[in-house]
Write a structure and sequence with these properties.
The protein contains 21 helices and 25 strands. Helix 1 crosses helix 11. The chain has 3 domains: 273 residues, Divalent-metal-dependent TIM barrel enzymes (TIM Barrel, Alpha-Beta Barrel), CATH 3.20.20; 134 residues, 2,3-Dihydroxybiphenyl 1,2-Dioxygenase, domain 1, CATH 3.10.180.10; 191 residues, 2,3-Dihydroxybiphenyl 1,2-Dioxygenase, domain 1, CATH 3.10.180. The chain is elongated, with a radius of gyration of 28 Å. Strands 17, 18, 19, 20, 21, 22, 23, 24 and 25 form a 9-stranded mixed beta sheet that branches. The protein has an 8-stranded parallel beta barrel with strand order 1-2-3-4-5-6-7-8, surrounded by 7 helices. Strands 14-15-13-9-12-11-10-16 form an 8-stranded mixed beta sheet. The chain has 633 residues and is an alpha/beta fold. Helix content is 36%, strand content 25%. Bound molecules: magnesium ion.
C-alpha cells in the first residue's frame, strides 16, 4: 500500500520521543535507523511493542554498510554480520533490511562479485521471509548512481531483492530520472524522499547538513515520486533526512513539517495525474485548494499605554491617521489609503502576553483571501489549528492560525472591508488618502532552525512560492534571505535567517525574544515628496553616509542633481534592467522594527544591493545608543 513513512534519523531526541512524534503527526510507518536502537536501553521486542501501541509499522531496518564486493576474510564476516541483523529484524518484526553501497577502500568494485554477494544474501534472507533493499550512496566507492544499483539488483535476480531509490542520491549525482519509470514496481524495495537547496557542495556534506523535506529545497522531488510511482510501486514513501538542524528542533514539529511536506507533494502528484487522465494515488487526505490571497488587510501592533504615543506619532508622521476606536477594547485603527494599522494596548489577552515577551511589536498580520473558510480548512487539514480570540457581543470572529514566533495570522474575506464597522466606531470619515498606497512587503526574522518550517507553512498551507536563497553581507557576518510570494505576487514576505554570530538578524532575534516582523515596507508613487513632508513632521530616517552617494555616482549615470537630492533626503537607489528603485528607512523603533518607504519604477526586486549600507548605518545607530534597555514599563 502506498503510504507515508519517516525514518527515525530525521528527528531528534530519544527513540520513544521520535516514535511518539511520528505517530502524533499522523504517520503510520517508520524506518528504524539502527543507531536509534543502539542508543535505546530496552530490548528490540520493546521497540516493536512501543511502535505497535502507537499504530506504527516498522517498515525497514537500516543501514547495513560496506557489504557487497569485499575480499576475504571480510566477506565471510559480512555475512555473519548480516545474519545477526536478520535475528534482530525478527525480534523487531521488520521485514526489509536496507543496504547502502559500499564506501570501503578495500571493496573490489567488480559488478559480478557484488551481484553474487547480494544474490547470496537475498537467498539467506528468503529462508527467513525477509527482504533486502540495495541503495546507491552518492559517495559510494564503486556504486553511486541508481542505474548501477538497479543493474546489480537485476544481475542478482532474486525476488526478495529490490533497489532502494532515494531522491537525495539521485539528485545529488544529477542522475537522469526518466528511466526510473522503466523499473518494474515490484523490484523497488523502498522509495525514500529528501530535498536539498541548490547549492554547490560535495554530496556527503550536502547530505549531512542540508537534506530537507520535499518542497523545502530546490529539487524536483515530485517529479521523482511521479516516475517512481509510474512503475506500479505501491510501498511506502519514506522521508529520510539527515540534518543537524532538524535533530536540534523538537521532534513533534519536525514530524509535522514532514507530514505537511508529503501531503503537499501527494496533492501535487495527483493534480499532475489528473491532467494526464490517470487515477489519483490518493496519498494525501483530500486537501482544500489554497485560496487566492488578495493582500494584507491589516497589521496589528501591540504596545503599552506609555509607549503607544511614540508609535502613534511615528505613524502619523508617515501620513497615517487614527480613524476609529474599537468598541470594547483599548485598540485603535490607523489608516492611510488601504493600509490599516491596528494598535492594541489591551492589558490582558493574547496581545498583552505577546507584548510582555516581545515589547512593542507586530503581533498579528491579517491576510485577505477570496475564500477564507477554504483557506482555514486547508490550514487545519495540514496540521495548523485555528485560534479564536476573545470578542465582544456582535463583534466579528476572525479565525487565525499561529504564525512566526506565535504571532497570529488572521484569515479575512477579500473585499469585505465592512467587517471593520462591526468592531470599530469610526470618528468621522473612515478614509484617509495620503502618499502611502499599500503594504509592499513584510520582512520576518527567524532562527535558521525554524526557517524551513516556515517555508513548508507558507508554501503548503498558503500556496506561496519561495525564491532562491540570497546571501547578504552584514558588518558582523552574513545572513540569508529568501522571499516568499503569494501566488499572485500581491503579498511578499522576505524571510531573513539568522546564522548565529552577531549579525543584525541574530541580534534582532536576541533582543526581540525570538523572531518576528522587523521591517514593514510601504509603497508610494512619490518618494521624494513624501520624505520632504515626513522629515518636516519630525520623522527620523536612517542616516546614510556620504560615501554611498559618491559610489552611486560612480556606478550609475545619474544626474548630479538627482544624486544631490537623494543625499539630502537619505534616499537609496537601485536599478535592475530598465527598472529603478528609490527607498528610505526610518530609524529603528526600540531596536525592534522599522519602516521602509519605497517607490518602484518598473522594478520588482527588494534593493538587496543596499542592504549592507542599511545594516552598517543601523549598526552605527545602535552604537550611538549608549543605553539600551528592554523597557516593559
Ligand atoms: Mg537513503
Amino acid at each position: 500500500m502506498l503510504r507515508f513513512s519517516i525514518a527515525t534519523v530525521s528527528m531528534g531526541g530519544t527513540l520513544e520521543v521520535k516514535l511518539a512524534a511520528a505517530a502524533r503527526a499522523g504517520f503510520r510507518a517508520i524506518e528504524l535507523f539502527e543507531n536509534d536502537l543502539t542508543f535505546f536501553s530496552g530490548k528490540p521486542r520493546e521497540v516493536r511493542a512501543m511502535a505497535q501501541d502507537l499504530g506504527l509499522d516498522i517498515i525497514a531496518l537500516q543501514p547495513l554498510r560496506d557489504f557487497e564486493g569485499m575480499p576475504e576474510p571480510m566477506r565471510v564476516r559480512n555475512f555473519e554480520r548480516a545474519q545477526r541483523k536478520f535475528d534482530l529484524m525478527e525480534d523487531l518484526g521488520v521485514r526489509l533490511l536496507c543496504i547502502c553501497s559500499n564506501v570501503h577502500e578495500e571493496s573490489l568494485g567488480d559488478p559480478e562479485r557484488s551481484a553474487a554477494d547480494l544474490a547470496e544474501l537475498a537467498d539467506l534472507a528468503a529462508r527467513r521471509a525477509l527482504h533486502i533493499g540495495f541503495e546507491a550512496l552518492a559517495w559510494g566507492r564503486h556504486v553511486h548512481d541508481w542505474m548501477q544499483a538497479w543493474d546489480l539488483v537485476r544481475r542478482a535476480d532474486q525476488p526478495n531483492l529490490g533497489v532502494v531509490l532515494d531522491s537525495f542520491h539521485v539528485f545529488a549525482r544529477k542522475n537522469p530520472i526518466e528511466g526510473i519509470a522503466q523499473i518494474p514496481g515490484d523490484r523497488i524495495a523502498l522509495m525514500q524522499v529528501a530535498d536539498a537547496p541548490g547549492i554547490l557542495m560535495d554530496p556527503l556534506s550536502l547530505s549531512r547538513h542540508h537534506r530537507c523535506f520535499p518542497g523545502q529545497g530546490d529539487w524536483p522531488v515530485t517529479d521523482f515520486v511521479d516516475y517512481a510511482t509510474q512503475t506500479g510501486y505501491n510501498g511506502p514513501i519514506s522521508l529520510e533526512i539527515f540534518n543537524d538542524q532538524f535533530r536540534g528542533a523538537p521532534a513533534v514539529a519536525i514530524a509535522l513539517d514532514g507530514m505537511r511536506a508529503l501531503q503537499v507533494c501527494g496533492e501535487e502528484l495527483d493534480q499532475r495525474r489528473q491532467a494526464r487522465k490517470l487515477a489519483p494515488l490518493a496519498l494525501s487526505r483530500s486537501l482544500p485548494k489554497p485560496a487566492k490571497v488578495g493582500g494584507v488587510e491589516f497589521i496589528e501592533f501591540v504596545t503599552s499605554t506609555s509607549h503607544s504615543p511614540r508609535l502613534v506619532a511615528e505613524l502619523e508622521g508617515l501620513g497615517f491617521r487614527r480613524v476609529a476606536r474599537h468598541r470594547s477594547k483599548d485598540v485603535d485603527l490607523l489608516r492611510q489609503n488601504d493600509v490599516n494599522i491596528v494598535i492594541n494596548r489591551e492589558q490582558d489577552g493574547f496581545g498583552h502576553s505577546f507584548y510582555l515577551v516581545h515589547g512593542t511589536s507586530v503581533c498579528a498580520v491579517a491576510l485577505r483571501f477570496d475564500d477564507p473558510e477554504r483557506a482555514i480548512d486547508r490550514a487545519n487539514a495540514l496540521g495548523a489549528p485555528s485560534y479564536f480570540g476573545r470578542i465582544g457581543p456582535g463583534e466579528a470572529l476572525i479565525p487565525a492560525v499561529a504564525g512566526v514566533e506565535n504571532s497570529l495570522l488572521y484569515f479575512m474575506k477579500d473585499g469585505q472591508h465592512a467587517t471593520w464597522e462591526k468592531d470599530f466606531i469610526f470618528f468621522d470619515t473612515p478614509s484617509n488618502p495620503g502618499p502611502l498606497t499599500r503594504i509592499d512587503h513584510l520582512n520576518n526574522m527567524v532562527q535558521r532552525s525554524e526557517f524551513l518550517s516556515w517555508v513548508t507553512f507558507y508554501k503548503g498551507v498558503l500556496g506561496f512560492t519561495v525564491e532562491p536563497q540570497v546571501e547578504l553581507a552584514d558588518p558582523h557576518g552574513a545572513f540569508y534571505s529568501r522571499v516568499l510570494r503569494s501566488s499572485e505576487g500581491v503579498v511578499r514576505i522576505p524571510i531573513n535567517i539568522a546564522d548565529g554570530g552577531s549579525t543584525a538578524v541574530s541580534r534582532f532575534i536576541e533582543s526581540f525574544g525570538g523572531g518576528g516582523v522587523q521591517q514593514i515596507a510601504l509603497s508610494t508613487d512619490d518618494l521624494f515628496g513624501f520624505v520632504e513632508k515626513a522629515r518636516a513632521s519630525g520623522v527620523a530616517f536612517l542616516e546614510i553616509p556620504d560615501n554611498y552617494y559618491a559610489d552611486l555616482s560612480a556606478r550609475y549615470d545619474l544626474s548630479a542633481d538627482l544624486i544631490e537630492r537623494m543625499r539630502d533626503l537619505g534616499v537609496l537607489y537601485d536599478r535592475h534592467k530598465d527598472g529603478e528603485f528609490f527607498h528610505i528607512y526610518t530609524r529603528m523603533f526600540d531596536q525592534r522594527f522599522f519602516f521602509e518607504i519605497l517607490e518602484r519604477r518598473n522594478y520588482d526586486l527588494f534593493g538587496a544591493a543596499n542592504t549592507p549600507v542599511r545594516l552598517a548605518a543601523q549598526a552605527v545607530e545602535q552604537d550611538e545608543m549608549v543605553r539600551f534597555k528592554l523597557d516593559f514599563d
